[in-house]
Amino acid sequence: MTTARDLMTHGAECVGENETLQMTDRDIVVRCLAEGGDPSTTTAGSLARGKPVTIGADDSAEEALRTMATHQVRRLPVIAGHDLVGMVAQADVARALDPQDVGRVLQEVSDD
């Protein structure tokens, strides 16, 4: 079984020890640039939203795909115990799973 740990990109970091918000490049585009904001003066805190949706390091690639579809997210922080150990992106999962399953999830995530 391929796990999130097998697929993840290492080196993801939290800004602070007790941070509970997540921000991605898409947040910058959608919440700042598309709304006419200035990225040089916009703070990360004003763009980040809600509690991050995460996946366990030993969860399967299939579970990562289901989680992405359920929560309409393209990236998942990977957690081992209480520690952030990496990030899994759609492209990581796409390389490990059946193309039809991945295509279905891409459609679900893209439908806003």
Automatic annotation (TrEMBL):
SUPFAM superfamilies xref list: CBS-domain pair
Protein name per Swiss-Prot or TrEMBL: CBS domain-containing protein
Taxon lineage: Bacteria, Bacillati, Actinomycetota, Actinomycetes, Propionibacteriales
Entries under SMART domains matching the protein: CBS (SM00116)
Classification via InterPro entries: CBS_dom, CBS_dom_sf, Diverse_CBS-Domain
Keywords: CBS domain
N-terminal signal peptide: none
Protein source organism: Mumia zhuanghuii
Residue ranges constituting the CBS domain according to the UniProt record: 47-105
Pfam families the UniProt entry points to: CBS (PF00571)
Highest rank taxon of the organism: Bacteria
